[in-house]
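Thread title: Can someone regenerate the structure for this chain?

I was given the following input by a collaborator and told the matching structure tokens would be attached. They weren't. Posting the sequence so someone can regenerate them.
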Amino acid sequence: MSFAAVDATVPNEIHETLATELYGVVDVDGVHLCEVVQDLSRANGTTFERRRDGRAEAGARYVAPFDRPSGAQHVMRTGRPLIVPDVTRSHLVARALAERFGVASILFVPLSWEGGVRAVVLLLTHTPRRFEDEEVELVYTMANQAAAGLAVLEMRSRIGGQADKQAALARAAGALNASLEQREVLSTLCREADLAVGADMSGVYLGSAEEGGLAVAGHGIRADSDWWGYRIMPGEGVAGLVLATGEPAISNDYQHEVRVPGLDVMGPIQTAVSVPMRWGGRLRGALSVAFYSMRRVAQEDIDTLQAIAELAAVACRNAEAFEQAQAAARLDSLTGLLNHGAIQVHTSEEIWRARRAGSPLTCLLSDLDNFKPINDRHGHLVGDEVLRRVSAALSAEFRPYDGLARYGGDEFVLLLPETDERGAQVAAVRLRECVAEAGRAVSGGGLPLTASVGIAEWCEPLTAGELLGRADRALLLAKRRGKDGLAVADPETERELTEMDSGGAPSRLMDAFWDTVSRCEEPRDLMFAVPSLLRRELALEEAAVFEPGLGPGGDRALVRLADARMPGDPGRSAFRGLAVSTGAGMIERLSAGPVARSSLGELRLALELPPPADDADPSLHGSYAAVALARRGEALGLLLLRHSAPEFPLTALRMAEMVAGHAVTVLVGQSGGGSRTAVAALAAAIDARDNYTLSHSSEVVALACEVAGRLGLDRHEIARVRDGAMLHDVGKVAIPNEILYKQGPLDDEEWEVMRQHPVIGEKILLDTPELADIAPLVRHEHERWDGAGYPDGLAGEAIPVGSRIILACDAYNAMITSRPYREPMTTEAAIAELRDNTGTQFDPQVVESLVHILSARKQPAVASAAE
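Best answer:
Regenerated them for you:
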């Protein structure tokens, strides 16, 4: 027993050695050890069974309440052994205990240290016997040796624990102030409290005496436990006692002393301690630690936990203040909605959720129409009231988890999780109704208020900035089309926007593009020419075009057809030797528009393509972009571009997309397509070349269709006339600027150049197979009824009827349109001119129909070049 008392490292080793030796020296049938709980209200008993090898091991456990006089209480009070030779005649042995273990006689022996009885050893016999004095003294001596060993262990633990507690407090002081996120602070608190007192688990409940506490942070608790998020009610468990009283609570017999929550982690707990957490002048929660064995909790343990809780309270107060400041930084001060920066972060989070769940996500960007005049006319106070009312109306109309932000000025963002483009269009209608209602509610009788809306649906691989950027471009188009409208971001939207910006670089680029088209013998020739065109016009480092073919493994792929480098570039091509998979994923990712990234590896990752092994090659510096040449999901080709800037310039990306769209129009004969799309694309090219030409052509189209209908042409022929009228000047894209824009009449040499434009126009249309049907109308649009026209000198009905109609309508519109070198004619004068040239220049029937239509109009159609 002496050796065990010296060598033992845990109390149970001493307990089992004492029981083994007692079985060896005293003739008894059972040995029990009852550990007295800290508040002296009961003892937790353990039976020790004797094995065949003579050693004793712990067996059944029970609780011995001190609710009536007992032998254990007597020993605790006197500190001396007690013999009960006949338990049937003694009131100090509970009948239930005697019957359960078949006790006839019993000897109680104390284990005492530090001035108190800490446990009682019970020696039981099944038959009556009287313990001799020598036996009692021997048992008492052995118990004292065991008690000395237990006292040494407790002292060692206390000394080591004090050092651990000091270290834990120092560590906690640093760790708890290392973060300003409350949840992270509380998780750190649990870990440090657990380590400081050597507990098996710990947890924090935030709440109050009125509502109980919510389990929000823990340590030593499984992630799938039902404890997380549990609301503990006041008075439930030790944490509930703390919330109810505001004072520390201890239980050495957790399963019987307190009302135990029905949670999986609570079953093994024997001892639990909880201390209050306060900050901001009130009780905010409880910190609890638990042990799976009975543990005597010293005051210093409570002090340590309380000190850690106080440190955590300071950190939580700081975290709370930080969260409030962070919320203020995230919210717009006028409307209370998310601000510009916060919606960027929120959009990134929603994209992550949409990607993980495979659910749709749509962004609406709205702008209040004519908001500036409201500020100017009524003052900024009224303007602010408008913004607040719009914000309140939108907040009330849409779901709490929809992202709603004031993007800047009078722009608002609405982010709609789990909503596709169709649902977003419905939401856009509701948004505009909210804006109108908010305008009507403004003090002073209300204001007429409308909103334009741009819609963009997220798809891979768009980032938050790209999604918001596309919604912004759609909004720009909606406002340019007119007030109180909406537009959806897609390639056609971007093309329409780019073509609206027809001055400057876009015009020069499209001049160069259609000039290139006119020199191509076959549509596929354009594929070889586009890289050089883009590299030169957009100042790219490199451009390459890929077309469908076979990859190295014999699989279908997009293989490099041609590329162009910056002159003098000493590096190798970034795209040479590449073969790109034609998987649907890549085309889908480019379907909403081009994708740009800051490296080739990032671009390939965005397109779900394997990264190149040599992406780090310094010669491959700059940013990269991919633009699809596709129609209805079918890949006709792919453009890969490299720019010297760290971020690919947005303007260059839009120009490349516009060129790609027109290139598809030229190539579409190889894969089918609709002629209306091709007509629109070529008409946009005319507009990019000469604003007058398209506005002039639009007037000609309207008149030509009416004349064709009056002449009795069928629907198909009217459609041909319409498209021919729209594109009758397409050949002018190849006319030099100095001739096309000359301020005055052309000389003979210049007229010879200008007279080539019908032939050039025919060639452009023939190079686009789906437009070949209208090529003859364009070629012969300047033929005369008397045969004196050009380019072929056709006469009378040998001239296609569509060309005769277009010629008369074209001439009329030219006469009433202002030109730099002359004033416009009146309608009456233009009609007189048409009649004077009937039978020579114009078909008489066409002129008769045209004059009838013009005479029926209520107002003369006068145009100007400025229009």
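The radius of gyration is 45 Å.
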